[in-house]
Amino acid sequence: MTAARRKFFIKTYGCQMNERDSEQVAVALTERGYAAADHEADADIVLLNTCSVRDMAEQKAIARMQSLQGRKRRQPALIIGFMGCMAQSRGGELARMLPQVDLVVGTQKYHKVADYVDQLIARERPDMDDLRGAIVDIAEEAGSQNAIKDHPPAARRATAFVSIMQGCDMRCTFCIVPATRGAERGRPAADIISEARALAADGVKEITLLGQIVNHYGRHEFPAVGGRAPFTQLLYALEELDGLARVRFTSPHPLGYKKDLIQAFRELKKLCEHIHLPLQSGSDRVLKAMHRAYTADQYRRLVADLRAARPDLAITTDIIVGFPGETDADYAATRRLVEEVRFDNAFIFRYSARHGTPAAALPDQVAEEVKDFRNKDLLGVLDRIAAANAAALLGRTVEILVEGPSRTKSSRSVGRTRTNKPVIINGGAELRGKIIPVKITDHTNYTFYGEPA
After folding, report:
1. Strand partners of residue 104
2. Residue 255: count of CB within 10 angstroms of its CB
3. 251 upstream amide cis, omega within 30 of 0
4. pTM listed for this prediction
5. Structural domains in the chain?
């Protein structure tokens, strides 16, 4: 079977950076003559791009691969493999645990996946030696942050992710990312601007800058200029690009919001009125144990400064409940801060011990039933806040960028406000990529419905 007749399917778990990495692999495979399959069952090559942030994400990927092994026993030519963070952290262990796996590729070797798929297919030729065993590559590679730069055709989309850096130096005690993504490494700003310019010329209206700690971009490699850090310089440069209408970024750290970045929210029209600002806990004692390096009051003051700079700013966050040693009083402090800040949305995680992280060895691990209660309780608080926030938008006219058809009804389209709220309207593919005013007519807590105004 030739490459041109082979189909691939990539299942992505986890964050937007994983989504962007999967896009890069898909482009590379397509350029080699492989075709993307719409469904996993139709593919000859199935790759799972994995996440290690929580144990549940790893278990889902392992269960999916166990199922694929059963299919491979019936279809020996099927190629199956792991990519990404779990592949990086567990490496050859995955190949030993799941002996039908052909490929295990870490976070710094996405650009090698197409080469390895070619090699695996070449093994089927009768003139090749039968090289048994999985290909495992989790080695570090200098410059790997520059390899995530290619995009699928933009004709089908209005938005794009742009990876500007890899790695993290923060060493939060609960987090495995420094072990799976390595040290902070930033791409040259000129390359990022060139990539964004090409996307805008191809019809993309909005880009989201990606990094593990995105607002720490370039702090080790590039100098501050005129009082602006490298990340802020990048935002001002993107403001000047023709055709680009919106800029977002994720995921930042509170410590990366210096005066120059706050000022950017006052001055830059393309910088959207939405930030994701991870809190993790509202308890100073827990924040210290997490090595977050800020207090709850410092977080409050930062929120106040950002809202003073952009009064209509929407704020979303990450929160962990049940961190080792978290008491009822600690949780109550988190709950109070959530009620005070009134986040537009939040990702709430029950603490999950990750092997090799300092928090996994801490005493006073919290019982699962306590984590579950706190998780549900905090979700209830957020739902009440979201309901009130949503009701305040009813009848208002907002600007949306139409991203494409609704997943549930092709006669409808979905777009997002500048504050990152999804809005569903009547209309099909002809609306994709258009920025239009919409009057909000109905809502759930987190999804809105509207009519072109």
Report:
1. 82, 136
2. 15
3. yes
4. 0.94
5. 3-137 (3.40.50.12160), 144-392 (3.80.30.20), 397-452 (2.40.50.140)
